[in-house]
Amino acid sequence: MTIWILILAVIIGLVAGVIRRGDFPTILNTQIYHPEFLVSSAICAFFVSVTDIDSDGVIAFVALVGAFAFTIMNLHLVGMVILSIGLALNLFVLILNFETPVRPNALVEAEIVTAAELERGVTISGHVELADDDSVLDFLGDTFPIRWSEQVVSIGDLIFLVGLANVTGNLMLGNQRRRYTYGQFLQSDESTDADPEDEEPPSEFEMDLDTPESPTVYPEAHDEYYESPTVYPESAPVYPESAPTAQQPQDPWSEPPWNPSP
Asked: Whole-prediction pTM value?
């Protein structure tokens, strides 16, 4: 892919973000992890596009690996999964064929070469080769011509462009998923694998709130369960206005227990 198609995908994503009421400062506040993978991938891709050496396939492989590693490290960004799928397809077909197979008729449709030149035989520089019967999964290679940019792209490239526009638009909206670390994954696994028998039983107060009380069942009424009713007087007893004074016990030694003789 040329740089112009990448810029076009970014512009489409920015326009979509503006339509969805996103703003540009939100992109600057995005947390990105391991940008060195992206930088190394961009340097390798630029080197492949401007040079013509025998090891272009190896450098292209390093560029794809770096870009794929960057997407995996930043899956918390919405749309980054689409980018990783596109890069994985390109990386897969490159590993199987050691170079990316390109459909010969697509070169003619993209006006890169003419039909007469293709019949005489053409030599393609870079990490691509003409697809033939020995190519493995050549439909994953460069098969879609783009005439206005004079290049041929693959299914992985198209998925990558869609993901790039999607990520750019979501960055303007600040759409990010929660990023879990390895320790957080272990904690979540331990919480899910916990034995329910090891959990503490709820307190009596919680049990009263959570479980409704069972209804009280009364026995059927029989004559033997009833006692004679208590009859209260119609009028209450009348007490004097002043409360009665308690009598103090007399000291038996204060007075003689006998009557004095006359």
From this structure: 0.65
Rounded average pLDDT over 255-262: 53
- Pull the structure tokens for residue 246: 């308690």
Is 186 exposed, middle or buried (CB count within 10 Å of its CB: 0-12, 13-18, 19+)?
A: exposed
Q: Is the pLDDT of residue 206 over 50?
A: no
- Mapping DSSP onto H, E and C, the string for 199-248 reads CCCCCHHHHHHHCCCCCCCCCCCCHHHCCCCCCCCCCCCCCCCCCCCCCC
Q: Match 């026995």 to its residue by tokens.
A: 219
pLDDT at 232: 55
Locus of tokens 């003689």: 256
Distances (CA, A) of 174 to 7, 35, 83: 21, 19, 18
Residue 177 has what pLDDT? 66
Angle CA 24–26–28, to nearest 5 = 85
Which is it for strands 128-130 and 151-154: parallel, antiparallel or unpaired? unpaired
SS3 state at 195:
coil
**CA-to-CA distance for 186 and 194, rounded, in angstroms?**
12
Host H or E run for residue 184: helix 182-192
Mean pLDDT of the chain: 76
Is the CA virtual torsion 74, 79, 85, 86 positive or negative? negative
Give me the residue label for tokens 């899956």: 75
Highest mean pLDDT among 41-50, 141-150, 204-213: 141-150
Q: What is the pLDDT of residues 62-107, one digit of tens each?
A: 999 999 999 999 998 998 999 999 999 999 999 988 888 899 888 8
Give the C-alpha separation, 11 to 33, whole Å: 23
